[in-house]
Amino acid sequence: MKSKDETEKVDLARRGIIKTMGVAATGMAVAGVTSAEAAEEQQSAGGETNPYGSPPGSGISMPPYYLPTPSVKNKNNYFPQSEPLGPDEMRIIFMGSNPWPPRMSQAGTCIMVEMGNGKRFFFDLGPGCLRNIIANQVPVPEINDIFLTHLHIDHFGDLPYLWQFAPFNGRWTPLRVIGPSGRTPELGTKAMCEHLKKMGAWTALFFTGMPMADGYEIEVAEFDYRDDGGVCYDKDGVKVTHWRRSHGADGASAYRLDWNGLSFVWTGDGKPDQLTAKYAKGVDVFVTEMAIDMVNLWALKQGVAPLMGAMTIDNYHTPHYAVGYLANLIQPRLAMACHVSYDRDLIGEMVAGVRTHYKGLFAFGVDHTVVNVTKDHVWIREAALPETTNTARPSLEWMIQNNFGGKLPAEISGKNPILANQEQAVRDLEIDPALFTPKDQMRQWARAASWGETFKISPAEMLGAPPAKK
Ligand SMILES: [Zn+2]
Ligand SMILES: [Zn+2]
Q1: 272 alpha carbon to ligand 2 midpoint, in Å?
Q2: CATH no. for residue 107?
Q3: Residues 226-253: pLDDT tens digits?
């Protein structure tokens, strides 16, 4: 074992070399050391070679497979709905990437994976991510099949919001949520969804008795979190497996999706672990959380008690060095860090930490990052999204297929939710619309109260043009 003094001597000597090389690289004269000598010293020190073996003068170089996939129309930006995905292609879009605190540029963690067979999955649904999903022009009824890694609210905060409004936008079929069990039944995904429905009891009143009320049902596929390598989805050639993560409480899980020879891993939160190294081995796109060790900065900037900060990182998360360490064990085609406070002043340090152990292709997966993957190519861009937008409309075919089992009924009827849930007296106090509506804009009001106990609607009329003036 080296004594403390010897260690310091070694460190000082290393620092000396680095300092000399740094000055040489700027081209300034350094007594007795030419830049050629410095470069030679650098090579013999065993690092600082281009990891992809590019010839001299290549500048920043990337692996040979880092090229646009055939479906990519604009190499710089992804414009939603402008690129049909190739049949053998996967597209990954980061809809949110932030743990805490909320910030303008990052929503809560959510990763959308689209496959060339038309399937689309969501991994976690953190607060604020719906805004990005909708800006990406994903029709609301198609925001479904949500895989939750664990039940920290930064990973499912937008679930109640989606649950409330998706029926309004045409998803009258249940929400499908896949997630882990917990240490006890009341700590599992199923129990969380039951509580969500209780929390939303008031909001759900608005569609009680109507056909779209099925949209308030949640189909939960809860898997046993202990079943490492277990399959939680296996349909249409898509297989999703899961395994345990060490994140402070039983239940936290990671996912691997395999389809058509392509694969994707999202670790969710947790300490770097052997199970992840095992199950993620050789994956195409490996996405892990990253918690840069910034206990001192948290204390200075956010007032987080240093011990709280240290406990958080040391017990629950993957430090930036460990991101590189894990990626090196796994050897993916692309390693990505998500669930990361993307502080611009710290990006250099984060990458330096990753590069301590990993030399392969690395990128941050933060809001609007888009990754196209085929067997031959990987390409990363940023989605070009408008500041203001609206929901994409699902096709009528989708509505008929998914809400009416393929055949549009002549009539749908149900109980009048307003008569059942609101006293007449408060409606009697409403101001007569004739007092504020221009005469030529008066129509027969679609007042549910006037429908009586039940109502009848023609779905063909609902799916067609807006209601005609009468
Ligand atoms: Zn988290
Ligand atoms: Zn967490």
Answers
A1: 14
A2: 3.60.15.10
A3: 999 999 999 999 999 999 999 999 999 9
42 and 180 fall within a common domain: no
What are the residue ranges of helices labelled H in 255-372?
274-279, 295-302, 306-316, 320-330, 347-355
> At CA 292, angle to CA 286 and CA 297, rounded to 5?
160
Q: Give yes or no for a contact between 446 and 238, defined as CB atoms under 8 angstroms apart.
A: no
Give the domain range for residue 255: 77-383
**pLDDT tens digits for range 72-101:** 999 999 999 999 999 999 999 999 999 999
Residues 246 and 316 in one domain: yes
CA 270 / ligand 2 centre spacing (Å): 7
Compute the distance from residue 144 Cα to the ligand 2 centre, in Å. Answer: 22
User: Residues 447, 325: one domain?
Assistant: no
Pick out the chain residues at pLDDT < 70. 1-48, 448-449, 465-470
Reported in sequence order, the residue ranges of 28-89 that DSSP labels E, i.e. its strands, are 77-78
